[in-house]
From TrEMBL:
Gene this chain is encoded by: CRYZ
Similarity annotation: Belongs to the zinc-containing alcohol dehydrogenase family. Quinone oxidoreductase subfamily.
Domain (Enoyl reductase (ER)): residue spans on this chain: 17-327
Localization, UniProt: Cytoplasm
Protein known as: Quinone oxidoreductase
Keywords from the UniProt entry: Acetylation, Cytoplasm, NADP, RNA-binding
Organism listed in the record: Pogona vitticeps (central bearded dragon)
Subunit text: Homotetramer.
Domain of life assignment: Eukaryota
Gene3D superfamilies: Medium-chain alcohol dehydrogenases, catalytic domain (3.90.180.10), NAD(P)-binding Rossmann-like Domain (3.40.50.720)
Amino acid sequence: MAAGRHVMRAVRVVQFGGPEVLKLQTDVSLPVPKENQVLIKVHACGINPVDTYIRSGTYSRKPALPYTPGLDVAGLVQDVGEHVTDFKKGDRVFTLGTISGGYAEYAVASVDTVFALSDKLDFKQGATIGIPYFTAYHALFQKGSAKAGETVLIHGASGGVGIAACQIARACGLKVLGTAGTEDGMNLVLRNGAHKVFNHRKEDYITQIKETAGAHGIDIIIEMLANVNLANDLQLLSNGGRVMIVGSRGPIEINPRDTMLKESSIRGLSLFSASKEEMRECAAFLLAGIEAGWLNPVVGPEYPIEKVAEAHKDIIHSQGALGKMVLLPR
Ligand SMILES: NC(=O)c1ccc[n+]([C@@H]2O[C@H](COP(=O)([O-])OP(=O)(O)OC[C@H]3O[C@@H](n4cnc5c(N)ncnc54)[C@H](OP(=O)(O)O)[C@@H]3O)[C@@H](O)[C@H]2O)c1
Protein backbone atom coordinates (compact mmCIF):
# COMPACT_ATOMS: atom_id res chain seq x y z
CA MET A 1 0.00 0.00 0.00
CA ALA A 2 1.30 3.46 -0.92
CA ALA A 3 2.44 4.99 2.39
CA GLY A 4 -0.82 4.02 4.09
CA ARG A 5 -2.98 5.53 1.32
CA HIS A 6 -6.10 3.74 0.28
CA VAL A 7 -7.55 6.18 -2.24
CA MET A 8 -6.13 8.16 -5.14
CA ARG A 9 -7.03 10.56 -7.92
CA ALA A 10 -7.95 8.79 -11.13
CA VAL A 11 -10.00 9.40 -14.24
CA ARG A 12 -13.11 7.21 -14.37
CA VAL A 13 -15.47 6.44 -17.22
CA VAL A 14 -18.89 5.26 -16.03
CA GLN A 15 -20.51 5.27 -19.48
CA PHE A 16 -19.07 5.23 -22.99
CA GLY A 17 -19.32 8.48 -24.94
CA GLY A 18 -17.50 11.69 -25.88
CA PRO A 19 -14.57 13.27 -24.01
CA GLU A 20 -17.01 14.63 -21.42
CA VAL A 21 -17.46 11.15 -19.93
CA LEU A 22 -13.89 11.32 -18.58
CA LYS A 23 -14.34 12.30 -14.91
CA LEU A 24 -11.53 12.97 -12.47
CA GLN A 25 -12.35 11.44 -9.08
CA THR A 26 -10.41 11.81 -5.84
CA ASP A 27 -11.67 8.75 -4.00
CA VAL A 28 -10.75 5.85 -6.28
CA SER A 29 -9.43 2.78 -4.43
CA LEU A 30 -5.72 2.20 -4.87
CA PRO A 31 -5.18 -0.99 -6.87
CA VAL A 32 -3.44 -3.82 -5.00
CA PRO A 33 -0.90 -5.87 -7.02
CA LYS A 34 -1.73 -9.55 -7.38
CA GLU A 35 0.94 -12.30 -7.38
CA ASN A 36 2.54 -11.41 -10.72
CA GLN A 37 1.74 -7.72 -10.80
CA VAL A 38 3.58 -4.49 -10.10
CA LEU A 39 2.03 -1.37 -8.56
CA ILE A 40 3.50 1.74 -10.23
CA LYS A 41 3.36 5.29 -8.91
CA VAL A 42 2.52 7.02 -12.19
CA HIS A 43 4.72 9.97 -13.17
CA ALA A 44 3.40 10.22 -16.74
CA CYS A 45 0.95 8.38 -18.96
CA GLY A 46 1.03 8.32 -22.76
CA ILE A 47 -2.23 9.29 -24.46
CA ASN A 48 -2.93 7.08 -27.46
CA PRO A 49 -5.67 7.47 -30.08
CA VAL A 50 -6.94 4.03 -29.07
CA ASP A 51 -7.81 5.43 -25.62
CA THR A 52 -10.38 7.63 -27.37
CA TYR A 53 -11.82 4.79 -29.47
CA ILE A 54 -12.24 2.63 -26.34
CA ARG A 55 -13.80 5.54 -24.42
CA SER A 56 -16.34 6.07 -27.22
CA GLY A 57 -17.58 2.48 -26.88
CA THR A 58 -17.19 1.77 -30.61
CA TYR A 59 -13.91 -0.17 -30.40
CA SER A 60 -13.74 -3.97 -30.55
CA ARG A 61 -12.23 -4.09 -27.03
CA LYS A 62 -14.68 -2.78 -24.45
CA PRO A 63 -13.66 -2.73 -20.78
CA ALA A 64 -16.25 -3.40 -18.10
CA LEU A 65 -17.64 -0.12 -16.75
CA PRO A 66 -16.58 1.83 -14.81
CA TYR A 67 -12.95 1.84 -15.87
CA THR A 68 -9.84 4.07 -15.93
CA PRO A 69 -8.29 4.62 -19.42
CA GLY A 70 -4.58 4.63 -20.24
CA LEU A 71 -2.14 1.86 -21.16
CA ASP A 72 1.36 3.42 -21.40
CA VAL A 73 2.78 4.52 -18.07
CA ALA A 74 6.17 5.38 -16.59
CA GLY A 75 6.94 5.85 -12.92
CA LEU A 76 8.37 4.26 -9.79
CA VAL A 77 7.58 0.83 -8.45
CA GLN A 78 5.53 1.25 -5.28
CA ASP A 79 4.82 -2.38 -4.46
CA VAL A 80 5.08 -5.82 -6.03
CA GLY A 81 3.05 -9.03 -5.91
CA GLU A 82 4.46 -11.99 -3.99
CA HIS A 83 5.84 -13.79 -7.08
CA VAL A 84 7.61 -10.75 -8.56
CA THR A 85 11.39 -10.94 -8.21
CA ASP A 86 12.55 -8.72 -11.10
CA PHE A 87 11.46 -5.40 -9.55
CA LYS A 88 11.46 -3.77 -6.13
CA LYS A 89 10.06 -0.62 -4.59
CA GLY A 90 11.72 2.50 -6.01
CA ASP A 91 12.73 1.01 -9.40
CA ARG A 92 12.18 3.25 -12.45
CA VAL A 93 9.93 1.42 -14.90
CA PHE A 94 7.63 1.76 -17.88
CA THR A 95 4.81 -0.43 -19.12
CA LEU A 96 2.51 -0.64 -22.11
CA GLY A 97 -0.13 -2.70 -20.38
CA THR A 98 -1.65 -1.23 -17.26
CA ILE A 99 -4.48 -3.38 -15.97
CA SER A 100 -6.14 -0.83 -13.72
CA GLY A 101 -5.61 2.16 -16.09
CA GLY A 102 -2.86 4.74 -16.40
CA TYR A 103 -4.84 7.99 -16.08
CA ALA A 104 -4.34 7.76 -12.31
CA GLU A 105 -1.84 8.35 -9.54
CA TYR A 106 -1.15 4.61 -9.26
CA ALA A 107 -1.61 1.72 -11.67
CA VAL A 108 -0.99 -2.02 -11.64
CA ALA A 109 0.49 -3.91 -14.58
CA SER A 110 1.36 -7.53 -15.20
CA VAL A 111 5.09 -8.00 -14.61
CA ASP A 112 5.66 -9.33 -18.15
CA THR A 113 4.59 -5.93 -19.55
CA VAL A 114 6.87 -3.93 -17.22
CA PHE A 115 10.42 -2.91 -18.19
CA ALA A 116 13.23 -1.08 -16.43
CA LEU A 117 13.39 2.55 -17.53
CA SER A 118 16.92 3.61 -18.44
CA ASP A 119 18.39 6.64 -16.66
CA LYS A 120 18.91 8.07 -20.16
CA LEU A 121 15.17 8.79 -20.40
CA ASP A 122 12.86 10.81 -18.17
CA PHE A 123 9.43 9.58 -17.08
CA LYS A 124 7.56 11.49 -19.81
CA GLN A 125 9.72 9.82 -22.44
CA GLY A 126 9.20 6.50 -20.69
CA ALA A 127 5.43 6.93 -21.01
CA THR A 128 5.71 7.35 -24.77
CA ILE A 129 7.69 4.19 -25.57
CA GLY A 130 5.06 1.47 -25.20
CA ILE A 131 2.37 1.42 -27.84
CA PRO A 132 4.13 3.77 -30.32
CA TYR A 133 7.50 2.00 -30.46
CA PHE A 134 6.20 -1.56 -30.13
CA THR A 135 3.71 -0.87 -32.94
CA ALA A 136 6.35 0.70 -35.17
CA TYR A 137 8.69 -2.28 -34.78
CA HIS A 138 5.83 -4.78 -35.21
CA ALA A 139 4.72 -3.01 -38.41
CA LEU A 140 8.16 -2.58 -39.93
CA PHE A 141 9.78 -5.93 -39.20
CA GLN A 142 7.43 -8.53 -37.73
CA LYS A 143 4.65 -7.95 -40.26
CA GLY A 144 6.30 -5.79 -42.92
CA SER A 145 9.60 -7.74 -43.28
CA ALA A 146 11.53 -4.49 -43.79
CA LYS A 147 15.20 -4.87 -44.73
CA ALA A 148 18.22 -2.63 -44.64
CA GLY A 149 18.60 -0.79 -47.95
CA GLU A 150 14.87 -0.68 -48.66
CA THR A 151 12.96 2.58 -48.92
CA VAL A 152 10.19 3.15 -46.39
CA LEU A 153 7.56 5.88 -46.44
CA ILE A 154 6.21 6.73 -42.98
CA HIS A 155 2.89 8.24 -44.03
CA GLY A 156 2.12 10.33 -40.92
CA ALA A 157 5.56 10.56 -39.34
CA SER A 158 5.15 13.42 -36.85
CA GLY A 159 3.05 11.62 -34.20
CA GLY A 160 3.78 8.90 -31.68
CA VAL A 161 4.05 5.88 -33.99
CA GLY A 162 5.52 7.94 -36.84
CA ILE A 163 8.50 9.32 -34.91
CA ALA A 164 9.15 5.85 -33.49
CA ALA A 165 9.06 4.32 -36.99
CA CYS A 166 11.46 6.98 -38.32
CA GLN A 167 13.99 6.35 -35.54
CA ILE A 168 13.78 2.56 -35.85
CA ALA A 169 13.91 2.46 -39.66
CA ARG A 170 16.89 4.82 -39.79
CA ALA A 171 18.76 2.85 -37.13
CA CYS A 172 18.17 -0.32 -39.16
CA GLY A 173 19.61 1.03 -42.40
CA LEU A 174 16.50 1.85 -44.42
CA LYS A 175 16.10 4.94 -46.56
CA VAL A 176 13.44 6.86 -44.68
CA LEU A 177 10.85 9.19 -46.21
CA GLY A 178 8.27 10.77 -43.91
CA THR A 179 5.26 13.07 -44.05
CA ALA A 180 3.86 15.69 -41.68
CA GLY A 181 1.20 18.38 -41.95
CA THR A 182 3.14 21.42 -40.71
CA GLU A 183 6.61 22.99 -41.06
CA ASP A 184 7.37 22.25 -37.40
CA GLY A 185 6.25 18.66 -37.85
CA MET A 186 8.39 18.29 -40.97
CA ASN A 187 11.47 19.57 -39.16
CA LEU A 188 10.81 17.20 -36.28
CA VAL A 189 10.57 14.26 -38.67
CA LEU A 190 13.89 15.24 -40.27
CA ARG A 191 15.56 15.50 -36.85
CA ASN A 192 14.34 12.01 -36.00
CA GLY A 193 15.73 9.94 -38.80
CA ALA A 194 13.99 10.82 -42.05
CA HIS A 195 16.23 11.46 -45.05
CA LYS A 196 13.47 13.44 -46.72
CA VAL A 197 10.10 14.81 -45.62
CA PHE A 198 6.91 15.87 -47.42
CA ASN A 199 3.84 17.85 -46.38
CA HIS A 200 0.71 15.67 -46.60
CA ARG A 201 -1.45 18.81 -46.72
CA LYS A 202 0.15 20.03 -49.98
CA GLU A 203 -1.69 19.00 -53.13
CA ASP A 204 1.37 17.86 -55.09
CA TYR A 205 3.14 15.94 -52.34
CA ILE A 206 2.38 12.51 -53.83
CA THR A 207 4.04 13.62 -57.08
CA GLN A 208 7.05 14.80 -55.07
CA ILE A 209 7.30 11.42 -53.32
CA LYS A 210 7.05 9.63 -56.68
CA GLU A 211 9.91 11.75 -58.05
CA THR A 212 12.04 11.03 -55.00
CA ALA A 213 11.35 7.29 -55.10
CA GLY A 214 12.21 7.12 -58.81
CA ALA A 215 11.44 4.18 -61.06
CA HIS A 216 11.96 1.62 -58.29
CA GLY A 217 9.20 3.05 -56.04
CA ILE A 218 8.66 2.63 -52.30
CA ASP A 219 9.29 -0.81 -50.82
CA ILE A 220 7.20 -0.40 -47.69
CA ILE A 221 4.68 2.18 -46.50
CA ILE A 222 3.76 2.54 -42.82
CA GLU A 223 0.30 4.07 -43.12
CA MET A 224 -1.31 6.08 -40.30
CA LEU A 225 -4.46 7.20 -42.15
CA ALA A 226 -5.34 4.53 -44.70
CA ASN A 227 -8.88 5.78 -45.30
CA VAL A 228 -7.33 8.90 -46.85
CA ASN A 229 -4.15 7.53 -48.42
CA LEU A 230 -4.48 3.90 -49.46
CA ALA A 231 -5.34 4.50 -53.13
CA ASN A 232 -2.32 6.82 -53.50
CA ASP A 233 -0.09 4.43 -51.58
CA LEU A 234 -0.72 1.72 -54.18
CA GLN A 235 0.59 4.08 -56.87
CA LEU A 236 3.83 4.64 -54.97
CA LEU A 237 4.86 1.03 -54.33
CA SER A 238 7.73 -0.89 -55.90
CA ASN A 239 7.35 -4.39 -57.33
CA GLY A 240 6.50 -6.58 -54.35
CA GLY A 241 5.97 -3.48 -52.22
CA ARG A 242 3.66 -3.54 -49.23
CA VAL A 243 1.42 -1.10 -47.40
CA MET A 244 1.23 -1.73 -43.66
CA ILE A 245 -2.01 -0.35 -42.26
CA VAL A 246 -1.35 0.97 -38.77
CA GLY A 247 -4.18 3.51 -38.65
CA SER A 248 -7.48 3.99 -40.49
CA ARG A 249 -10.54 5.94 -39.50
CA GLY A 250 -13.08 4.93 -42.12
CA PRO A 251 -13.64 3.31 -45.51
CA ILE A 252 -11.92 4.11 -48.81
CA GLU A 253 -12.42 2.98 -52.39
CA ILE A 254 -9.38 1.44 -54.11
CA ASN A 255 -8.88 -0.33 -57.42
CA PRO A 256 -7.60 -3.86 -56.63
CA ARG A 257 -6.05 -3.87 -60.11
CA ASP A 258 -3.45 -1.44 -58.73
CA THR A 259 -1.96 -4.32 -56.74
CA MET A 260 -1.72 -6.82 -59.61
CA LEU A 261 1.12 -5.87 -61.93
CA LYS A 262 3.46 -5.06 -59.06
CA GLU A 263 2.24 -8.01 -56.95
CA SER A 264 1.99 -5.60 -54.07
CA SER A 265 0.23 -6.28 -50.80
CA ILE A 266 -1.88 -4.47 -48.23
CA ARG A 267 -1.55 -5.78 -44.71
CA GLY A 268 -3.30 -4.61 -41.57
CA LEU A 269 -1.87 -5.10 -38.11
CA SER A 270 -2.80 -4.58 -34.49
CA LEU A 271 -0.39 -4.57 -31.59
CA PHE A 272 -3.17 -6.16 -29.55
CA SER A 273 -2.86 -9.20 -31.84
CA ALA A 274 0.92 -9.58 -31.42
CA SER A 275 2.00 -12.85 -29.81
CA LYS A 276 3.92 -12.97 -26.52
CA GLU A 277 7.04 -13.99 -28.45
CA GLU A 278 6.66 -11.02 -30.78
CA MET A 279 6.21 -8.70 -27.80
CA ARG A 280 9.34 -10.12 -26.16
CA GLU A 281 11.28 -9.59 -29.40
CA CYS A 282 9.99 -5.99 -29.65
CA ALA A 283 11.05 -5.31 -26.05
CA ALA A 284 14.55 -6.74 -26.49
CA PHE A 285 15.10 -4.72 -29.66
CA LEU A 286 13.77 -1.47 -28.19
CA LEU A 287 15.63 -1.74 -24.88
CA ALA A 288 18.84 -2.26 -26.88
CA GLY A 289 17.95 0.85 -28.91
CA ILE A 290 17.64 2.92 -25.74
CA GLU A 291 21.02 1.74 -24.52
CA ALA A 292 22.60 2.39 -27.94
CA GLY A 293 21.17 5.92 -27.81
CA TRP A 294 19.23 6.04 -31.07
CA LEU A 295 15.84 5.44 -29.43
CA ASN A 296 14.93 8.82 -28.02
CA PRO A 297 11.16 9.37 -27.58
CA VAL A 298 9.80 12.81 -28.44
CA VAL A 299 7.29 14.12 -25.90
CA GLY A 300 4.61 16.31 -27.45
CA PRO A 301 1.92 18.34 -25.67
CA GLU A 302 1.61 17.73 -21.93
CA TYR A 303 -1.75 17.81 -20.11
CA PRO A 304 -2.39 17.86 -16.37
CA ILE A 305 -4.90 15.17 -15.42
CA GLU A 306 -7.59 17.83 -14.89
CA LYS A 307 -7.42 18.58 -18.65
CA VAL A 308 -7.95 14.98 -19.76
CA ALA A 309 -11.08 15.75 -21.81
CA GLU A 310 -9.22 18.48 -23.70
CA ALA A 311 -6.40 16.03 -24.44
CA HIS A 312 -8.87 13.53 -25.91
CA LYS A 313 -10.39 16.22 -28.14
CA ASP A 314 -6.96 17.35 -29.29
CA ILE A 315 -5.52 13.93 -30.14
CA ILE A 316 -8.29 13.35 -32.67
CA HIS A 317 -9.01 16.87 -33.95
CA SER A 318 -5.84 18.98 -33.72
CA GLN A 319 -3.50 19.15 -36.68
CA GLY A 320 0.27 19.39 -36.45
CA ALA A 321 1.44 16.53 -34.27
CA LEU A 322 4.83 17.01 -32.61
CA GLY A 323 5.50 13.69 -30.91
CA LYS A 324 3.45 11.85 -28.33
CA MET A 325 0.94 13.47 -25.96
CA VAL A 326 1.31 12.76 -22.25
CA LEU A 327 -0.98 13.08 -19.23
CA LEU A 328 0.55 14.09 -15.91
CA PRO A 329 -1.25 12.85 -12.81
CA ARG A 330 -0.09 15.75 -10.58
N1 LIG B 1 -2.57 -0.86 -35.41
C1 LIG B 1 -2.12 -0.62 -34.17
O1 LIG B 1 -1.81 -1.54 -33.39
C2 LIG B 1 -1.97 0.80 -33.76
C3 LIG B 1 -1.14 1.14 -32.68
C4 LIG B 1 -0.96 2.50 -32.39
C5 LIG B 1 -1.63 3.46 -33.14
N2 LIG B 1 -2.46 3.07 -34.13
C6 LIG B 1 -3.17 4.06 -34.97
O2 LIG B 1 -2.20 4.69 -35.78
C7 LIG B 1 -2.54 6.06 -36.00
C8 LIG B 1 -1.39 6.95 -35.55
O3 LIG B 1 -1.20 6.80 -34.14
P1 LIG B 1 -0.29 7.85 -33.35
O4 LIG B 1 -0.25 7.42 -31.94
O5 LIG B 1 0.97 8.08 -34.10
O6 LIG B 1 -1.21 9.17 -33.46
P2 LIG B 1 -0.78 10.69 -33.37
O7 LIG B 1 0.38 10.85 -32.45
O8 LIG B 1 -2.03 11.43 -33.09
O9 LIG B 1 -0.26 11.05 -34.85
C9 LIG B 1 -1.14 11.11 -35.96
C10 LIG B 1 -0.30 11.25 -37.20
O10 LIG B 1 -1.14 11.21 -38.36
C11 LIG B 1 -0.71 12.26 -39.21
N3 LIG B 1 -1.69 12.62 -40.23
C12 LIG B 1 -2.67 13.58 -40.19
N4 LIG B 1 -3.25 13.68 -41.40
C13 LIG B 1 -2.61 12.80 -42.22
C14 LIG B 1 -2.74 12.45 -43.58
N5 LIG B 1 -3.67 13.00 -44.38
N6 LIG B 1 -1.92 11.52 -44.09
C15 LIG B 1 -0.98 10.92 -43.33
N7 LIG B 1 -0.81 11.21 -42.03
C16 LIG B 1 -1.63 12.13 -41.47
C17 LIG B 1 -0.38 13.38 -38.26
O11 LIG B 1 0.39 14.39 -38.91
P3 LIG B 1 0.12 15.97 -38.69
O12 LIG B 1 -0.57 16.13 -37.37
O13 LIG B 1 1.50 16.56 -38.75
O14 LIG B 1 -0.75 16.36 -39.85
C18 LIG B 1 0.44 12.57 -37.25
O15 LIG B 1 1.75 12.36 -37.74
C19 LIG B 1 -3.85 6.29 -35.21
O16 LIG B 1 -4.94 6.12 -36.08
C20 LIG B 1 -3.84 5.16 -34.19
O17 LIG B 1 -5.13 4.81 -33.77
C21 LIG B 1 -2.65 1.78 -34.46
